[in-house]
Amino acid sequence: MDPDLQDAYHAGSIFLSEPExxxxxxxxxxxxxxxxxxxxxxxxWRMLHDKGFIYYWYLKDYKMAxxxxxxxxxxxxxxxxxxxLSAMSLSKGGAIEIAIALxxxxxxxxxxxxxxxxAKNHLLSFDVARDIWxxxxxxxxxxxxxxxxxxxxxxxxxxxxxxxxxxxxxxFPYQYNPVTGxxxxxxxxxxxxxxxxxxxxxxxxxxxxxx
Length: 211
Fold this sequence. Notes:
mainly alpha, 2 domains, 2 strands, 58% helix, Serine Threonine Protein Phosphatase 5, Tetratricopeptide repeat, 10 helices, two-stranded antiparallel sheet
């Protein structure tokens, strides 16, 4: 591999980190790949940023991610937001706003279609997880009050339109089983759902808990 082909380090590290079948499921190998690039380009902030991203998202090592991003912030050409990103990671750990901001940045800044598509799928998956977990929360409230599951999602959210969605971000209605109370993505949906870690559930559920 050409050591000066920086885009290869970025795209390769994401592929190595993503779980199968999307990627190789080897985030530690991704770190090693990025370290090779960093040794060749020690002043290139983007590869250090990617290294922190791997620690944060795939290895769930928020402290290491914050330390890597802190080092990134000290580079001459590093963007101004690296330092607060480091501080948030070190202080908040798995904060949802950090994870979403990272995927938004991947989607905005990458010039590779596959990397942008992967980032878009993660962002859509956050929306789906928020919808489903919130609907399941309302279903449990309904069952505790009425002794049975609601007959349909429309009944469940009646009077709450605009706050809860019964269709995914691309407009496909969520699949609902009134016998079990289970909500899931429709088989017809065009969204490629990537599992959102349970650690984000309390933060994604905050609006529902305040209902």
